[in-house]
Write a structure and sequence with these properties.
2 copies of one chain form a homodimer. By secondary structure, chain A is mainly alpha-helical. Chain A is built from 9 helices and no strands. Chain A is elongated and about 55 Å long. At the A-B interface, helix 8 and helix 9 of A face helix 8 and helix 9 of B. Chain B binds a DNA duplex through helix 3.
DNA sequence: CTAATAACCTAACGTTTGTTTGTCTAAGAT
DNA sequence: ATCTTAGACAAACAAACGTTAGGTTATTAG
């Protein structure tokens, strides 16, 4: 009969993962437009044309990486939320977790903030949908929070995520750890100015 | 004698401003790499080659725009700071002002957050210096603030600026006004979570 | 009026880009 | 042992890119 293997990988020494890793690292640090297919191929140790065996276009490669990125971030976030005893603690754990995820060099998640809207117009809707799913976790966390009436929940979410996502522009290994940075933003939110 | 005019513009109908406006608008919304010289020329109503009468390269055009951007933002910020009665009020005024500046479509300032580091490697140092000058105002404001001992001043600055700069990714005219958004971030900082 | 030149235009240059094409090779199935 | 094909390679393609060169026009100084 035909192949009894319903899964994908049929060959052992495929360099699909190398391509994804290279693309994720380059998209995350340089952005989408500034990263060329030749850059990715070179980083993955292969020829530019070979990338098109795995993906039909640059945009499809981005989409595949983006999906993994959201998936990785989501599972880490779910675990962090579980560890919080109450809504307040859950929110704080989520903040620290998201910060660590965004500053982790070996994680794909930085691609989410490294790609500008409008960079890949034809798949922008899909990327936005993926990202919205992730941010929904924060929506739920904040909804369950007891807050002063003056605080707009939507604004709180956008400000916190914005502040965390911006850390990637100034973060440098060797200084404060991602965890310390995450804890500091929690501290600033808790202390009245 | 030679020209008794020490200033720049010698011809009345130069379209330098149109070039700067077009470049600022496109760099701000699409980013540096995604904006082509042909895009800018088209937006300014002229030919691509004509841009090189005013600027020797794309990077020089960016630098000129960036300088104006920081200048505009700086003067607006100085005025806002002056209007604050005490350190706390000055800081709050600065937050609202910076938010309004970043969301103003007719201002060059959005270029500061629209250009990724590494987009223009040869002038990156100059751009960073310009931007650091602007952020120094916030450094001084926060230094004069009375804060809980647990709050790291550097982190407070980076988080607040990060949150405000991120507003440009989700802001849409028709909803909350830039001023309302700025006031909300002040409110969130003042209310203990 | 004439000469100079500021401010453009037209047309192209060489390079880089995403992508396509055809060929080769080694591994798994029969 | 043979056949098939996953997975790569080398080489090129057309389009788009930043940029350059030379020509044109209209203003202005003398």
């Amino acid at each position: 009969m035909a192949s009894a293997n319903p899964n994908k990988q049929q060959r052992s020494h495929s360099r699909l993962k190398a391509v994804l890793d290279a693309g994720a690292m380059l998209f995350a640090t340089r952005g989408y437009k500034a990263t060329t297919m030749r850059d990715i191929a070179s980083q993955a140790g292969m020829q530019p044309g070979s990338l098109y065996y795995h993906f039909a276009s640059k945009q499809e490669l981005l989409q595949a990486i983006y999906e993994i990125a959201v998936e990785q971030a989501q599972s880490r976030l779910d675990e962090a939320i579980r560890s919080g005893k109450n809504p307040q603690a859950k929110f704080e754990e989520a903040i620290v977790c998201h910060t660590e995820t965004m500053l982790d060099q070996d994680n794909y998640a930085r691609v989410m903030t490294g790609v500008l809207p409008g960079d890949a117009p034809e798949i922008e809707a899909e990327l936005t949908t993926l990202r919205d799913g992730y941010e929904d976790s924060f929506r739920r966390l904040i909804r369950a929070l007891k807050l002063p009436s003056k605080v707009d929940r939507k604004m709180l979410r956008l400000f916190v995520l914005g502040a965390i996502n911006a850390t990637r522009t100034w973060y440098a290994p060797g200084g404060k750890t991602p965890r310390q940075i995450g804890l500091q933003i929690v501290e600033i939110l808790k202390q009245p100015l």
